[in-house]
Amino acid sequence: MSRKVSNALGLVVALVWVFPVYWMVSSSFLDSTQVRSKDPVFWPFGGDASAYGRVFDDSFLASMRLSVTVTLITVVVALILAFLTAIAVSRFRFRGRKALVLTVLIVQMIPAEGLFISQYKMLEGWHLLNSILGLSLLYVAAVLPFTVWMLRGFVEGIPVDLEHAAMIDGCSRTRAFFVVTFPLLAPGLVACGVYAFLQAWNEFTLATVVMSPSNRTVPLWLRGLTTSSNAAIDWPGVMAGAVLVAVPVMVFFIIVQNKMTSGLVAGAVKG
Known about the structure:
Elements: H1 3-27, H2 32-36, H3 50-55, H4 58-91, H5 97-108, H6 116-125, H7 132-156, H8 161-168, H9 173-184, H10 186-202, H11 205-210, H12 218-224, H13 235-269
Transmembrane segments: 61-87, 99-120, 132-155, 176-198, 235-256
Protein name: Carbohydrate ABC transporter membrane protein 2 (CUT1 family)
Domain ABC transmembrane type-1: 64-256
């Protein structure tokens, strides 16, 4: 396949991927009549940002604060636990190590829906239903197996001889790890952090089960905009809400995109 054909194919794929995002943003500036028209309006000429004013209210801000808090807790706790677990199973030999790795792999295969009842009863018994701590606990448990498995590949890809060389030069084992190995793990930590962030930010079903209707994350808040009859749904408002929900994700990607790309590529060849 020639280079021109490859570029043209890549451009077509990019346009197909970008168009739904463009349609979401464009529709947020139209009025309901234009959005519901049989003739699609591709350019929002003459539109306004009134839909953003309608959805940017106290309920949106409350949902945004809840989602940001739960997501940050999930990312930080999951990365710390995954990092320590990955180091343990990669650098140390202890009884039950293989069983632990196998358990982590098996846990990933359990459908999330099969755990809903037990998770609900567990949080109910701990008085953590409809709480940030309870929801964060479930999200950490959901993302931890994959982050451990992914980070383990990064740790095993870094030769332990580098630490040994630093120890010969006078470093303690702890200092050798943090000076030599830890910086090399940064792309892996970023890649795992992105995965945990997306899982926690976009999660819908668990939040529906354990949170009350008055205490909603942003996916539940966005779903709440479409619960009326189809004729009464404010579709420009829904599109504006979707844009607002996507903004933190885009900002996060802009910040970590360089490290994330190198981390995903490195993780693809190590394991």
